[in-house]
Amino acid sequence: MVSVGAEQAQEGAVYTEQGRGTFVGPRSAPQSPRKVPVYQQIANEIIEEIKAGVYAPNRLIPSEKTLGQRFDRAPGTIRQAIAYMRELGWVFTVPQKGTYVSKREDWPER
């Protein structure tokens, strides 16, 4: 027996894109833009605060626990946000000390 979803896929009514999901309709149909991942939304908000002077260069940003409570997100999501900011050059992490705002001259151009 073929499931309804498999039957629709065979008929071309649905299709799957790896990493994006399953969609109804032809592949040529326009799709809404992909949403920004939550960790990037969090990172972008913190980056805006860094640019606004809320967090000064060479000063600590709030801890993962504090950020998790502020954004009501799991520790892994907060770690992803911090890692993303680190990759971009906005922050650096000192083991056992915390995450600090990079020097202004090290900030990426955005």
Task: Give an account of the 3D structure.
The protein has four helices and four strands, in the order H-E-E-H-H-H-E-E. The chain has helices at 4-10, 38-52, 64-71, 75-88, and strands at 14-17, 21-24, 91-94, 98-101. The strands form two sheets. It has a two-stranded antiparallel ribbon with strand order 1-2. Strands 3-4 form a two-stranded antiparallel sheet. Strand 1 and strand 2 form a beta hairpin. The protein is elongated. The termini are far apart. The mean pLDDT is 86.
A few lines on this structure:
The chain has helices at residues 4-10, 38-52, 64-71, 75-88; strands at 14-17, 21-24, 91-94, 98-101. A hairpin with a 3-residue loop joins strand 1 (14-17) and strand 2 (21-24). With 110 residues, the protein is of the alpha+beta class.
Percentage of residues in helical conformation? 40-55%
Rg from C-alpha positions?
20 Å
Distance between the termini: 54 Å
Number of helices: 4
What's the number of extended β-strand segments? Answer: 4
Shape: elongated
Taking all residues together, what is the mean pLDDT?
86
Q: Look at the helices and sheets and give the structural class.
A: alpha+beta
Largest pleated sheet: 2 strands, antiparallel
Give unreliable regions as ranges. none
Order of helices and strands: HEEHHHEE
Query: Approximately how much beta-strand content do the residues carry?
Result: 5-15%
Question: Spatial order of the strands in the main sheet?
Answer: 1-2
